[in-house]
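Ticket reopened. Same input as before:
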Amino acid sequence: MKNRIKVERAIHDLTQEDLAKKIGVSRQTINSIEKGRYVPSTILALKMAEVFGKPVKEIFQLEEGD
Amino acid sequence: MSGKNFIERENQQLGKFRALPHVFKVIGLVASTLSLMGWLYVLFNQLNPPYLLVVFQDLLLISMLLITISKEKVEDEYIHQLRLVSFGTAFVAGVFHAVFQPLVNYVFEGINQPDPSSYRGFDGFFTLLIMLAFQIIIFHSLKRLA
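Engineering reply: fixed in the latest deploy. New output:
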């Protein structure tokens, strides 16, 4: 699964730490999600979508093989 | 509490690791450092009484357990997943070590004159048996109720 978190963070001028604080997780968690090492739960994905003001499917997209 | 109630309760708590507060990680880290130093000191100086070595070994294990079951500063789902993976890996590695380490020792010690009667297996057999049995029973009980 690919994601646009890094792009969205840049648009909203948020650091990983800022985003982590907004949704109540650690910076390492944001970093792992951004790099594709960890797939977040629906709750976390929805929280991120809320912060960026966009639907979840605009932030996370399935890749071939998922 | 009946068996079914226990399983239902465990199922409800699935994913919620009831860990100790974060301060216990610091306590565990200090205690394990001191225990390790004490253990090495007793080991290399061959101090008496002999049970001192066992006391430091137990203290080391308990303090490491404190580190293992303490919360991180920020507890989230990623941390839960990492903990689950690390527990699983450690569990499997522990069983492998317990079973194969005596064999490796035997092969290297008896490389010149192998003596099958001197082979001693792992003496914590029942500890591992209980750990494995618990994992199998709890996993399959929870899966059946899912």
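Chain A has a mean pLDDT of 94. The first helix of chain A runs from residue 5 to 11. Please confirm and we'll close it.
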